[in-house]
Structure formats: structure tokens, C-alpha cells
Amino acid sequence: MTGLTAAAEQVVAARPELVWDLVADVNRVGGWSPECTRAARLTKPGRPQPGARFTGHNRFPDGFEYEVTCVVTKADRPRAFAWVVLDDISDPDCPSSSGRYRIDPLPGGGSASLTDPAPAYCGQPARRRRTGPLRSSPPGWTGCGPA
What we know:
seven-stranded antiparallel sheet, 9 strands, globular, Alpha-D-Glucose-1,6-Bisphosphate, Chain A, domain 4, single chain
């Protein structure tokens, strides 16, 4: 499953700084994510920095719910905001998934192009395919891939 990516791009009629402030505020994620119903910072308030942690509570249409811990990996206002989702071994270098927003100013100012690539999975099957508690890797998987 590694190496698969997709992206969605949206033109937003707002300055890149405002767009970044909105997408980097993890407390707002539940307002627009179809999967993550809420998130909360685990580190001090303020502008997010690399290394900052937050939790995300996810719910799927079939009722499956789980909570994850995430680590901010890039907080480059107003250009990019990125994070990784930790798996059971909690190694940010080998996350279960990742997320990233890229914000590009458009000619003429006043608008930005917001790109939201789909999560990239590090060797493990996508979380949305899991049916049980997220307590351990599938049999035959260690770290970032099959044993």
C-alpha cells in the first residue's frame, strides 16, 4: 500500500495566511473532516510547531471509532501544514499515515490554492480497512512493512 497518493485541490478566496491559520488549527478539524470528528492539542496552545502533538477521534459510517495520536511534522506558515499519525510503536519516522496541506498563493493576490493529498500509508493496510481495535500490527507486519 505504500506509494499510493491522490490529491484534491480547491481555490479559496482568502489570503494564504488565513487559509493556513484555519487548516493548522486542529481543534477545527471536526467541522470539515468526513472521518475525524474532533481533535485536541496535547501540547501548549499557540501556533503549531513541528513536534507538537494532538489527538484525533475518528468515526466511520459503519460505526467503527478510534482515537489516534498525531505529531506535527511541518508548520510553515503560510505554505504548508503536515502531520503523521502514530501507530502502536509510536515512531514518527514510520507512521501509520500522514496528512499534509499545501497552500499556494494565486496570481493577483486575495486567493489561495489549497491542496490536500490523500494519506500516505507506511506499509500497513489503510486504517479504514481495519475492523477491530488498533492495538497491534497485522500478523506478518513489523515496523514499516512486511516481516
